[in-house]
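--- STAGE predict ---
source: upstream dedup step, 1 unique chain passed
mode: sequence only
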Amino acid sequence: MSLSLYVDTERRPLHRRTLLTEFPELVPVVDGNGICTPRLARQAALLGLGTLAVGTAQEAAEVLADGFTGEVLVLAPYRIGEDGPDLPGERVIRTAGSPEALRALAGRRVVVECTTGMHRHGITRRDLLSLAPTLAGVVFEGFTLNLPPDVGDPVSEVSGWLSAIAGAGLPPCTVHLGRLDAADLAALAARFPTIAFRSRTGTGPRLGGAGALRTRAGVPQAPRIAGGELPSDVPALHPTRTTGLPAAPPRPARDHRATTGRRRRGTGAGWKRKGAGLALLTAVVLAGASGCDGTASAGRASTAATPQPGTSAGADGGAGTSGSPSPSQPSAPPLQIDSITPADGSTVGVAMPVSIVFSHPVAASARAAVEQQLKVTTAPAVTGAWHWFGDRRVDWRPQDFWASGTKVSVVAAMTGVSDGNGRVGTQDYTHTFTIGADVEAKVSVPGHQMQVFRNGSLVRTLPIDAGSASFPSWDGTMAVIDKQKEVRMTSCSAGITCDKNSPDFYDLTLPWDVHLTYSGTYVHYSTGDPAPGHGEGSHGCVHLSMADAQWFYDYVEQGDPVTVTGSQRGDTGGDNGYAAFTLSWSQWLAGSALPH
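--- STAGE serialize ---
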């Protein structure tokens, strides 16, 4: 039996490009279960991505020894005291599934796995409340969620975790996700534009789409077995069975005699079968994979099948492709941009800053050079500047609110730019967006009211309740992050209490939610405060009546400023969401790496 696999060399690269478009921060998984892992890594590296994921520490060692120059994520959670290979800490990211593992990995690059519907290892939401000091001891690379294959609503499960992470005051800049399709990933990216979602996939990059693969099998004529008829339950074998391609000429039937000319035992006329025994060989095709040395693992053919037009017998997508491809990789690990907000082509409010989040920390010594490569062009022209929030996020805002109708272009010319920590930019980025209507909301905490303005004219005055004396609201100017028709809010995820017997405990799904801060501030309706305007009874949010909450939800968009004054808590941080205009212009300029 001969079995041939044909790969459409034009369609397969197209599939890979489509995959990278649908999953912009893709992390290929090359978990070979101990078989051919370096070979799979070389194939995945053809995608030009700087990070690969493997199953175990041993597989990470094999990939690095084979010459892979990027970084490697080990998916198996670290076991305290594990006996494994010595891995280079600067290029290997370990997974921690418990606070104890985090402490044992002090100083190492780490992602933290969260418990999902898989009900395997991972931290719990209660662990988040005390995780910050432990994270300070590692090089934190983000969270990871391995979703179950049959989860009913993966977007809700991931959103719940992100709300809990933000409520605990932790930085969810990067989140690795397993088993999430492109539509769900796009929905999450739209809901959480400041978070970089990195999707993991194993077979997708290598198989190239089912339509790019075609097989042909040739089955020789099976002669009747001497000494009896074929059993009635065994179907007759046809000369050739094919799938997808024209039939190949049938191979001649093999002589069922040994090379010495003697009959094989059991084929003589006097032999009687005591039972119907027929062994069928089953060929299994591992599409896109071959032997570790680049040859077929089920035996080496002396001649190659003739490819059809537009196809090739080489599983790597090129005619004459060798078994050991030489992927083009950067000479240094890549520095990439995790996210640029607002989204390309969007229309946003007058307080929306440009916010760029890098994949890795930028050294203080390199920030001026990086900042020089970040250009913001506007029509009409405005005065503005960059401001660094830590070593991975840098925001740009004009001196005053944007003028409605302004066209904005952002160019990050990062190719060849060093981050000062050994990484180099590998691509340039361009985003454009437009400033929409001038809609502003002003909240007076002691006056228990919100005034909504459009183009400077008062539109409505709405009664509100803000945070209580125990849980005061943030002051400051906060641009709307996003909005959702329903959000589940819990005292546990907000870091208030997880004790169901506490008077401050709550677990509610509330409607018409306009999101203001990463720490969990919303403007919304609350079932516990249906007629606001009389006091300060929330846990830090701004409460509206049901009708007013729905109106406000429909009226505002991302980037519209909500300015809160008169609270006991003081101003929020400029990076607690998009609160750039909470800072004075002199404070903003002080955060730039360039002189002003």
